[in-house]
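S1.2 Input.
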Amino acid sequence: MALKFDTSFDPNYGQGANVAPDVQRVTARNPSPFTFYGTNSYIVGRETLAVIDPGPDDDAHLQTLLDVIAGRPVSHIFVSHTHRDHSPLAARLKERTGATVLAEGPHRPARPLHIGETNALDASADMAFLPDIALPDDAIVAGDGWAIRTVLTPGHTANHAAFSLEGTGILFSADHVMGWATSIVAPPDGAMADYMASLDKLIRRDDHLLLPGHGGPVTAPRSFMRGLKTHRKMRERAILERVRAGDRTVPDMVKAIYRDTDPRLHGAAGLSVLAHLEDLVARGMISTDAAPAIDGIFTPAR
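S1.3 Output.
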């Protein structure tokens, strides 16, 4: 399918929005080119609740969550990954509710840093986060009238997880699949090979509704994710073509491939190009003198 993004979205700041039976979405007021209108937190259940992705450390968002929770007990807080727009509020929400915090694990890069390399996304990582319980793939946590299965989906980050609401066909896809834009895959925080493998994993599932970490729902998940996969493959081909045409650096490739993209996103675009280059070098399709780096020189494989 042709990939069509849906940018129509009402964040309903300061209140909850019913998005499925016994599921409410609360959107934090942290809009940006990277977060769209803000981070979506989800409240699951009717009596004893679970919260998925409490969001940024923001007083107003915490208060809105507590208002929507409305005094009901919260047994579990699930965290999809440890970027600072998703996980930091977990500690304060746990303090207010006594809930158990669950996630794949603490923040870590998708690969070791190369000599002299710095992580451009360090500032966006919640390095203080540590879950009470580390979730393996396919773990099921049962609550009061609901059960949530962990679906590990590394790629956007090494510790990224989606969460399936069992028996409903609903998957909380966090930042792996969003209807308004493609996910950022930026080394060394994330890895393109991991992202594509996780995308294939979700395509093989039978979910009928995705509730993402930003923006509105994805109502035709399989066809949309196939479109995402095609989009990534087209981006890969564009990078190969630029290298074969003589572009040797990431900035030159970004200038050509992302000429119609908001310049504020060119830094992230450069990291996305690097993610593809890492994968292409590993597959022997592009060469570079050392480990693939943001300031590296890239040539067609001989």
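S1.4 Remarks. The helical segments are 59-69, 89-97, 192-203, 221-245, 250-257, 266-282.
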